[in-house]
Design goal:
Length: about 220
């Protein structure tokens, strides 16, 4: 399975911690410095670092900088146990998502910061623009769902979602080929982002449920 730029960036950043280039307690270079070194976009670096923060590997202190935690938690492969299960069908993956992500969306509506709310809207709108231009949008799609998990401030559920993101990335390549699914997904993203922005947790929960259920129903036909 080919890695997305996003997941490859996460792996590269983790490797810097594992090999001691970024030792525990050290300050991490700026977004711009990392972006230049890895030759990826600043937005990709930002989302990758947010994921490392949600995993407990780094600490982002607004106004002070970014630091490696003294006790990074998830440097090992979070999907190791999942790999032992063998092939997992898309239906089973979506059934698992529908148990978790609507709750994360509802919690995001309650706990997301103003910056996170703004970023969700940007990601939703960026996906629509990328689709209109015929460009790649998978990384934007996944970043949207990751940010919802992060902003929910429920670390257990967030880490559960983190463990299946590699599977989700592969599954997206298939669900996005279903009739009208890409357009429906991008529209759902905008509606979910608005519900979170307006702090309507029940609506955010329902929209996320409908979003995933649409894909489930299409696959079951």
């Amino acid at each position: 399975m080919k890695k997305t730029v996003y997941s490859a960036t996460i792996d590269q950043l983790k490797e810097k911690i594992i090999n001691g280039e970024w030792p525990p307690g050290s300050r991490i270079p700026t977004l711009q410095q990392i972006s230049k070194e890895l030759e990826v976009g600043v937005s990709t670096v930002r989302e990758a670092l947010r994921t490392l923060e949600s995993q407990g590997n780094i600490s982002i202190e607004h106004g002070r900088g970014m630091y490696v935690r003294n006790d990074p938690l998830l440097l090992e492969d979070p999907t190791a146990n999942l790999k032992e299960l063998g092939d997992i069908s898309l239906v089973k993956l979506l059934e698992a998502r529908i148990l978790i992500e609507p709750t994360l969306a509802a919690l995001s509506a309650e706990h997301a910061t103003l910056n996170q709310v703004k970023e969700l809207r940007k990601l939703a709108e960026r996906m629509i623009l990328q689709m209109e231009e015929g460009g790649p949008f998978l990384d934007t799609d996944l970043a949207f769902h990751r940010l919802i998990a992060e902003s929910a401030r429920q670390p257990v559920l967030s880490r559960m979602m983190e463990s299946i993101y590699p599977l989700l990335s592969e599954g997206r390549k298939h669900t996005n080929t279903l009739p009208h699914m890409r357009t429906k997904a991008s529209n759902y993203h905008v509606l979910i982002a608005i519900a979170i922005e307006e702090r309507h947790s029940d609506q955010a929960r329902q929209l996320m449920h409908q979003h995933i259920n649409d894909m489930l129903e299409a696959l079951r036909k």
